[in-house]
Amino acid sequence: MQAAIDYDMKVLARNIEDTKWNTTRFLVLSKKMRTLSPAVKERKSSVVFSMKSRPGALLECLNAFAKRGINLRKIESRPIHRRAHRFAYLFYLDFDGDIRSVAQKEAIKELQTLTTFYRFLGSYPIGIPRNPAYRAAACIRSLGI
């Protein structure tokens, strides 16, 4: 609901959470790359990749970012069922910076040499956590109510 208010979007369904404290993040996807405003300073980027299953393969992929001083914000793995009793994994990675920055370009170039599958998902402004209940409570406290 808060995302619909913040970004002037239509709510398609209400109260779909399974717990009261559920937090859901939303992405807007497009085939066309959108240019970010130069005023947006803090950005992060997201990629998805897969590599051959062998000891140290993931470490090598992550090291492409570490040796360039790029902070990793999130890494998540999801299994892909390929053959009976065999799984491969997709790794979703969020990291600081814009894909057009020199260090990030170099890290991605190295990552692509280490992977069997790679997709760039986007660079975008780092979101501001939204918590309307917290904001309301903070406003009330600041007003001394």
Brief account:
With 145 residues, the protein is of the alpha+beta class. It has helices at residues 2-6, 57-66, 102-114, 132-143; strands spanning 43-50, 72-83, 86-96, 117-125. The longest helix has 13 residues, at 102-114.
Structure write-up:
- The chain is α+β, with helices and mostly antiparallel strands and 145 residues long.
- It has a single domain (40-143), classed as 2-Layer Sandwich (Alpha-Beta Plaits).
- Helices cover 28% and strands 28% of the residues.
- The protein is built from four helices and four strands, in the order αβαββαβα.
- The chain has helices at residues 2-6, 57-66, 102-114, 132-143; strands at residues 43-50, 72-83, 86-96, 117-125.
- Helix 2 runs antiparallel to helix 3 (102-114).
- The longest helix is centred in the C-terminal third of the chain and has 13 residues, at 102-114.
- The protein is globular.
- The chain starts with a helix and ends with a helix.
- The model is unreliable at 134-140 (pLDDT under 50).
Keywords:
4 strands, single chain, 28% helix, Alpha-Beta Plaits, 145 residues, globular, alpha+beta
Strand content: 25-35%
Distance between the termini: 26 Å
CATH class type: Alpha Beta
Largest sheet: 4 strands, antiparallel
User: What is the CATH architecture annotation?
Assistant: 2-Layer Sandwich
Q: Could you estimate the helical fraction of the residues in percent? A: 25-40%
Uncertain ranges: 134-140
Domain module count? 1
- Tally of strands: 4
